[in-house]
């Protein structure tokens, strides 16, 4: 009978739909409604077939099934075919939950921002957000947050953990590098970055945000390095770097912006300075060559030497001399000389 064939077709269709539903992870409300409609229509067909089967010989024929059953079935089959063709496409917004009703994933699109979120805010959560300008990835668990952002102008990664914020890329306007700061007030703690008007350097800050140690390229000697330490007033009081030609090493300490002492690798020398910046004491090698030894020289305020003592390579020993400028003479104590005397020279 035609009704029985129709019922068989609808039964087979429902079996196929349910088999597809078991395989597919993206079941939608639209598909559920279609299956519900099919089941109702199948019940209608069954009722019509039952009335036909109850027809008695010689009696009046049972009412015929509704004339539009085939058309309705074809329409339903078309809808099912459409759902099957798009079974890998799901329209947002939607969410995925587990057996306990806990949200596993949420997909949404709002105000031009497309988002995919795993987990729920307040707990361990990860999210991907994309708009017309940038792409962002966020991983968070309470106050610990990891953030990645990229757009046409900058890219940056921000990690916030246990009260410390670490930003890499372009953490601030005009800044490129890595900046470590207090997570609450963004007070800088340290950085390796390129700042406007400054070269790339390592900088360490105190609690007030003042640079106390910096290391980088020597600003006065291109291609050489320097390390500087500041005092509580922000003045640089210690320096490790190179000589003016960038070839030899220099270590110096300062006060009030002026050098007070320095260790210079070439010539090998330790220098003490007065407030005017003049060298008043030097401890150095005495002479060049294989016979070089040690020497100490004391100078008057203008830097002119007045006392010198050290190794004398020509005599093969040591000597000491005092220059008395007012009397325009010099007294020396040396090898073969019994004592300080009027040995002018």
The percent range for helix content is: 10-25%
List the secondary-structure elements in sequence, H or E: HHHEEEEEEEEEEEEEEEEEEEEEE
**Between the first and last Cα atoms, what is the distance in angstroms?**
143 Å
Structure summary, number of beta strands = 22
Tertiary shape? rod-shaped
Protein structure class: alpha+beta
What can be said about the biggest beta sheet?
22 strands, antiparallel
As a percent range, the share of strand residues is 35-45%
Quaternary organisation: single chain
Number of continuous helical runs: 3
Query: Gyration radius, to the nearest Å?
Result: 45 Å
> Which stretches are poorly predicted, pLDDT < 50 over at least 5 residues?
23-27, 336-345
What's the overall average pLDDT, rounded? 79
Coiled coil: 21-55
Keywords: Coiled coil
What's this, in brief?
This protein has helices at residues 2-23, 29-53, 69-85, and strands spanning 94-97, 103-110, 113-119, 125-130, 134-141, 144-151, 155-161, 164-169, 176-182, 188-194, 201-205, 211-217, 225-230, 236-242, 249-255, 258-264, 269-273, 279-285, 294-299, 305-312, 317-324, 329-333. It has 345 residues and is an alpha+beta fold. A hairpin with a 3-residue loop joins β4 (125-130) and β5.
Describe the structure.
There is one protein chain. With 345 residues, this protein is an alpha+beta fold. Among the domains are: 2-85, no CATH class; 92-153. 19% of the residues lie in helices and 42% in strands. It has three helices and 22 strands. It has helices spanning 2-23, 29-53, 69-85, and strands at 94-97, 103-110, 113-119, 125-130, 134-141, 144-151, 155-161, 164-169, 176-182, 188-194, 201-205, 211-217, 225-230, 236-242, 249-255, 258-264, 269-273, 279-285, 294-299, 305-312, 317-324, 329-333. It has a 22-stranded antiparallel beta sheet, with no helix packed on it. Strand 10 (188-194) and strand 11 (201-205) form a beta hairpin. 6% of the residues are buried.
